[in-house]
Amino acid sequence: MAYSDKVIDHYNHPRNVGQLDKSSIEVGTGLVGAPECGDVMRLQIKVNPETQVIEEAKFKTFGCGSAIASSSLATEWVKGKTVDQALEIKNTDIVKELSLPPVKIHCSVLAEDAIRAAIGDWKKKNGVGEQTATAVPVVAAD
Amino acid sequence: MNAACWSCGSAVPAGKPWCDACGKVQAPLESVDFFTVFSLPRKLRIDMTALERTFYRMSRKLHPDLYAQASPEERQWSLDQTSQLNDAYRTLKDPIARTEYLLRLEGVEIEAGKSDDGKPRDSRVPPDLLEEVFELNMQLEEMRMNRKMGEDDPQLRADLEKARTQFESQLAAVDTGLEALWASWDETVDSSAAKSDTGNIKGEIVALLDRRRYIRNLVRDVNEALET
Predict the structure, then answer these.
(1) Which of A79, A83, B32, B127 could disulfide-pair with B15, CB 3.0 to 4.6 Å?
(2) What is the pTM of this model?
């Protein structure tokens, strides 16, 4: 199976690799894993407290090329969006953008999970509840 | 559940590849599970010697060469039965593949991430395991990077060797845990235990299999780093 050019590009030149200060109140951290393939992905966002715009995003992924590309793309996409806009990113958008084959769809799911987990962490830190009608639980109960 | 032999009309137990009365090959059933192929209960500990012996005995009996002169249907059935037998043997002889297969038979979903409709899945990986795996990966990556940058530093090699020993012993610990769970599972099969008991065991097996995949990847990565 061949990777698409976009996957290869993200794999060779991953965007926004790194980490943000986990202890900062403005930073949300999402650590997720795909047990079926043994991938782990950490995605972090830095949110402007005034505007709720994600100003910075970093990731670190241990996994296959598709998992790295999916998380790299996810950091690119969340940057500049508000928290609520970022929650609208769907794994299917990532699949389309990267032309992921069916066996790699779970990589995009992982990236979406990572965005949700990071935003969930940020909301928890900042006491932001789920005011919207769509009561999708984004934070797993402790 | 029996079916009638197409040739002599005798009763043939479901999944039995041939008729005991007349010896004719039967049409394979799609729905037959791999344990039934070998007339085994759904247990996780298997006598490997007996399994191998049965496999060779059945292979000889079903071998397509024996059906060269038979009717086209029988020829096809011997092919299909042989291929089913091979699949069953390959799955059951590997303890991990066998465990995953049994869980699937028992209705446990191993492959997560199937929801491509964007619905959040229930993530079942415990956070502390993720933290641990992430940390181990970070350490391993640092060692590999350092090794790539500089000359073959004996200290780094020693660190990697140490990491390998550590991961391998973790893998061994997981396997020991799995063996204990296999034994518990097999006991519930014998005692027809309550649903809640079997449910708990299944959950624990799934968790250990998840952990095993992560650690196996770490072992693989550290071995790769040591080879280059």
Answers:
(1) B32
(2) 0.74
B139 touches chain A (CB under 8 A): no
Nearest to B111 among A36, A116, A140 (CB): A36
A20 CB within 8 Å of a chain B CB: no
| 0.85 surpassed by complex ipTM | no
How far does CA B208 lie from the centroid of its chain?
13
Does the domain spanning B127-227 belong to CATH 1.10.287? no
Q: b vs e for A90-112, b when ≥16 Cβ sit within 10 Å of the residue's Cβ?
A: bbbbbbebbebeeebbbbbbbbb
Q: Which neighbouring-strand residues pair with B13?
A: B2
**Domain layout of chain A by residue ranges:** 5-126
pLDDT digits (tens, 9 = 90+) for B5-15: 998 989 998 88
User: Cα distance from A68 to chain B (closest Cα, Å)?
Assistant: 14
The CA distance from B198 to the nearest CA of chain A, in Å, is 22
State pLDDT tens for residues A11-67.
Answer: 888 999 999 999 999 999 999 998 777 889 999 999 999 999 999 999 999 988 899
